[in-house]
Every structure is written in C-alpha cells, then in structure tokens.
Specification:
By secondary structure, the protein is an all-alpha fold. Helix 3 packs antiparallel against helix 4 and helix 4 runs antiparallel to helix 5.
C-alpha cells in the first residue's frame, strides 16, 4: 500500500526520478524477475519515468529475446529522455542490426550520448 501511495504522490508531484531509487517498485519487480508485476507497476509511471519505459522495452522483447516494435518504442522514449541504459541498448541494437541492417552512424550517436553521461560501457 505504501508503494502505491509513493507512486501516486510522485506522479502527481511530477518527480521524473522515480525508478532510479533502489526502493522503487518498478525497479524491484523487474530485477526480481517478476515481469507481470513490473509490467503493471512500470506501466503506471511510464509517462514520467524513463527507467519504467526502459523496463517496458525489456519485457516487451519476444520470448526469444528478440526486439519487437513495442520494445523499440519504449527504448526510444527512455533514451530520448536521457536514460543511459536505453541509450546504450539502442547503440547495441544499431550496431548489431537487430532491427534490420547494421547502422554504425546511429550506433555511434547513441553510444556517444551515453558516454557523455559517464557511462562506463
């Protein structure tokens, strides 16, 4: 119940940083592998939370771990809001050609954006 109140309060106050906390229910459910709960909890805050968008991208991969249009949509939203994990993921997607042809220019763009935020990868 406290987690729901926290999420509602954070959304109403417009805190864009929920999801970065180690106590965030979206992050916790995803990291514990409880993807159905993560889908619900992260979906509730995805409009203001880039990490929730990233999680929705990860859990929208198909059963073989392949990229889907839905997962790509969420990765782009999170990356455009500056989430390093999503920027790095888009770099990987572009570099390996997971959405078709390899695009080194696009990969470099996303990797550089992540690097500008001191991403160690």
């Amino acid at each position: 119940m406290n987690q729901i109140i926290f999420i509602i309060t954070a959304v109403l106050l417009g805190y864009p940083t929920i999801g970065y906390s180690n106590q965030d229910p979206c992050r916790l459910s995803f990291e514990k592998g409880n993807f159905e709960v993560a889908r619900i909890v992260c979906g509730e805050v995805a409009s203001v939370n880039p990490y929730a968008q990233f999680v929705l991208g990860e859990i929208s991969l198909d059963s073989s771990g392949h990229l889907t249009p839905k997962s790509m949509h969420w990765f782009l939203k999170a990356a455009e809001k500056g989430l390093v994990e999503a920027q790095r993921r888009l770099g990987e997607i572009s570099l390996t050609g997971m959405m078709g042809a390899k695009n080194y220019k696009e990969a470099r763009k996303w990797y550089e954006m992540a690097a500008m935020q001191n991403d160690p990868a």
